[in-house]
């Protein structure tokens, strides 16, 4: 008996196997699994290693206060995600939520923005996996391996990550969780040891608002950098279909993860500032400030900190791709994106096509970036290292992700008023999401404002081009098949 076929909006075919949609493996994950996966996706060692130095340069001695402000902003977003998931858990995450609130065109537009933003951001992680390993090899002068290009190591680790992810969500999530646990132990041990060794410099200065460089302007300027430390906090929502009792466990995982990461980041930041004897100039000039502190504590601490950086990048790669590929997988099976993306492995129930597509595009972005440097004559200047790409790709991806965050906050009150008016609470479904929308405008402004160095100055225009393309694609798609609106959010995780 053959599958029933329905036309999609692009002229391809959407398979409806005997009327049943492609489904992921239900009940494979528990609360601890998705919380660990979420924090592994955040990649605290990776994010803190490469982000805190510039944050301290921007915000000054009181940079930990900027992290606290960012954590509060993420909590507003967490409320939005939690409230949506309570009534409509979906592997589509923000795409589904925005689409159900504003309609098919906005849902399709959000699918494009989400896919583009997360793939660009994940491309930075793909690159830094190999780049950081190359840094480790050079630091310890490993003969015969120091000259191997970082992209070669990236491909090796990427192959390992893909193998784990295709094997199944349970196995790959556990691997990411183990990596996360290791990095957290190392980060805390090094931080505590640094406080003990440099206890003479322990003061409340990093928590005094007067020590924020430039006052409120400095706080706002450092805000997008602090927000990036938390990117990945929404991981658990995309795992809803594979999670037991997602309506309760996903919100719990969101708030648990954000709370743990907020406390941890503030502690790591404070320890790093103390480790530099409150000298922000020296801190911001260090290539990776936390590793400098680890070396100052004891040599063995530095070695384990390097290993923590490696497990962090690998954990973030596995956990991040697992969740973010599921967003576009769900969009594919619901017809918002090409149908081929919405397939699952027949036995393992993993979204293989979405995983391969997601990472293939990430590699194309890395290749295009490298080609651009070569043709632009910048290759010899040493600018083609993975750290530079990490900063550039993550910044561009964050701009698009922030747009999705903003749309999601606006969607919450509309969705509840439209679909669940009996459950609508003014504070929870009105005030909090509007506050979340307003705080997101701050990093969006600082990432898009004129006068930034190249290539950051053209990122806002590139993001705008993606938005325009997404809108044109959405309008064309829905015009060809108005039934798209009925398919958005049609697959509920626990139904």
Topology (elements, then pairings):
Elements: E1 4-7, E2 13-16, H1 31-42, H2 44-59, H3 63-87, H4 93-102, H5 104-139, H6 150-167, H7 169-197, H8 216-230, H9 235-238, H10 246-275, H11 280-285, H12 289-297, H13 299-333, H14 352-375, H15 386-419, H16 426-448, H17 459-480, H18 484-487
Antiparallel strand pairs: 1-2
Helix pairs in contact: 1-7, 1-10, 1-13, 2-8, 2-13, 3-8, 3-10, 3-15, 3-16, 4-5, 4-15, 5-6, 5-13, 5-14, 5-15, 5-17, 6-7, 6-13, 7-10, 7-12, 7-13, 8-16, 12-13, 13-14, 15-16, 15-17
Describe the structure.
- The chain is built from 18 helices and 2 strands.
- By secondary structure, the protein is an all-alpha fold.
- The chain has one domain (about 5-485): Amino acid/polyamine transporter I, CATH 1.20.1740.
- It has a two-stranded antiparallel sheet.
- α7 packs across α12 (about 290-295) and α7 (about 170-195) runs antiparallel to α13.
- It starts with a strand and ends in an 8-residue tail after the last helix.
- The relative contact order is 0.20.
């Amino acid at each position: 008996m053959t599958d029933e076929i329905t036309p999609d909006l692009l002229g391809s075919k959407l398979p409806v196997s005997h009327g049943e949609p492609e489904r992921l493996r239900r009940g494979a994950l528990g609360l601890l699994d998705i919380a660990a996966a979420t924090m592994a996706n955040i990649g605290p060692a990776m994010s803190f290693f490469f982000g805190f130095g510039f944050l301290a340069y921007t915000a000054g001695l009181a940079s930990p206060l900027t992290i606290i402000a960012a954590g509060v902003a993420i909590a507003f977003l967490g409320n939005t995600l939690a409230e949506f998931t309570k009534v409509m858990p979906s592997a589509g995450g923000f795409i589904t939520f925005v689409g159900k609130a504003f309609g098919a065109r906005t849902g399709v537009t959000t699918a494009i923005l989400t896919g583009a933003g997360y793939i660009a951001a994940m491309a930075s992680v793909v690159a830094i996996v190999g780049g950081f390993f190359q840094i480790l090899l050079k630091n310890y002068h490993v003969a015969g391996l120091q000259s191997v290009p970082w992209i070669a190591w990236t491909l090796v680790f990427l192959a390992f990550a893909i193998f784990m992810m295709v094997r199944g969500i349970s196995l790959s999530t556990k691997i990411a969780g183990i990596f996360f646990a290791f990095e957290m132990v190392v980060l805390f041990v090094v931080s505590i040891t640094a406080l003990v060794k440099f206890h003479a410099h322990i003061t409340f200065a990093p928590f005094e608002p007067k020590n924020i460089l430039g006052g409120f302007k400095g706080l706002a300027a450092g805000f997008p950098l602090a927000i990036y430390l938390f990117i990945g906090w929404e991981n658990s929502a995309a795992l809803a279909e594979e999670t037991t009792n997602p309506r309760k466990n996903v919100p719990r995982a969101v708030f648990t993860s954000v709370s743990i990461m907020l406390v941890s980041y503030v502690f790591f930041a404070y320890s790093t500032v103390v480790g530099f004897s409150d000298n922000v100039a020296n801190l911001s000039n260090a290539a990776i400030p936390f590793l400098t502190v680890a070396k100052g504590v004891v040599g063995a601490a530095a070695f384990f900190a390097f290993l923590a950086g490696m497990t962090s990048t690998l954990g973030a790669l596995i956990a991040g791709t697992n969740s973010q590929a599921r967003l576009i997988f769900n969009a594919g099976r619901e017809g918002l994106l090409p149908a081929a993306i919405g397939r699952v492995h027949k036995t393992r129930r993993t979204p293989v096509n979405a995983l391969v597509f997601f990472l293939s595009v990430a590699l194309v972005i890395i290749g295009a970036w490298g080609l651009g440097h070569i043709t632009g004559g910048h290759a010899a200047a040493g600018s083609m290292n993975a750290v530079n790409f990490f900063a550039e790709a993550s910044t561009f991806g964050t701009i698009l992700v922030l747009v999705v965050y903003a749309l999601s906050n606006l969607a919450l009150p509309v969705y509840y008023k439209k679909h669940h008016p009996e459950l609508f609470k003014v504070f929870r479904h009105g005030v909090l999401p509007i506050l979340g929308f307003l705080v997101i405008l701050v990093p969006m402004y600082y990432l898009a404002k004129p006068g930034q160095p190249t290539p950051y100055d053209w990122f806002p225009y590139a993001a705008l081009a993606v938005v325009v393309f997404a809108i044109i694609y959405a309008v064309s798609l829905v015009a060809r098949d108005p039934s798209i609106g009925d398919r958005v959010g049609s697959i509920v995780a626990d139904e």
